[in-house]
Amino acid sequence: VNSVHAAASACPLPPLVERGAAPLQSDVPSSMAPLKTEGASLQPLAGFSIEARVLAREDYRFDAGAALSPTDLALGWNTMANPANYRRLDISQSGRWYHYRWGAEGPPLPLGEIIRSSANMHLIPGNEAVAQAMARVRPDQTVRIQGWLVEARRENYVWRSSTTREDSGAGACELLYVCAMSSF
Q1: Which residues of the chain carry a pLDDT beneath 70?
Q2: Which residues lie below 8 Å from residue 8, measured CB to CB, with a gap of 6+?
Q3: Which pLDDT value is given to residue 2?
């Protein structure tokens, strides 16, 4: 198990999801100030904790969000954490999107279940140790992540996280400031 946590004062942890449970979203404490990172102010929208299978990963260096969020992980939980289900899909990522297709046999799960049990997460590392832990994550690993869904603001730029696991398409990705991460 590789596990790291950003300094508590810079990155307070939201409640931890129970093993095997769906992602846990929690309220932002009224005393919590915006988070700061190089070149952006991050307004917390909700606490977020997840244990999920890594379905795919994509690293970015040249798009508009790369300095803030260098890595996207497509994550699956509940039925989408089961290799018997997700391995029947052709999963890919590009342009900050998570894509899945199935063959002639049809999807392994109803489409609504795939949508509710998987998502693309744009990850913002809380510090260098978290960034290094993120760099080691590979598909088929399980990760536990705690952090904050955020709205990032920079000059002439706003990037807002989804706050539901029920959506799909444009705007459905989570933008997650990662305070703690472990992989196994």
Answers
A1: 1-9
A2: none
A3: 59
pLDDT confidence of residue 157: 86
pLDDT at 8: 52
Give the three-class secondary structure for 181.
strand
112, 108, 109, 89: which is closest to 99 by C-alpha?
A: 89
- Integer-rounded Cα Rg, in Å, for the chain is 16
* Cα dihedral: 159, 125, 47, 9 (round 10): -120
* Spatial separation of the C-alpha atoms in residues 148 and 161, rounded to whole Å: 10
* CB burial readout 44-56, b (16+ within 10 A) else e: bbbbbbbbbbbbb
Spatial CB neighbours of 89, under 8 Å, sequence gap ≥ 6: 100, 101, 102, 107, 108, 114
DSSP code per residue over 77-127:
-GGGGSHHHHTTSEEEEETTEEEEE--TT--SS-HHHHHHTEEEEEEEESS
Q: How far apart (Å, rounded) are the C-alpha atoms in residues 121 and 158? A: 17
Distance CA(108)–CA(84), nearest Å, equals 8
How much is the pTM? 0.93
Distance of CA 137 to the CA centre of its chain: 12
Give the CA distances from residue 130 to residues 62, 72, 83, 111, 167, in Å, rounded to whole numbers and listed in that order: 21, 14, 26, 33, 27
In degrees to the nearest 10, what's the CA dihedral of 135, 141, 142, 144? -10
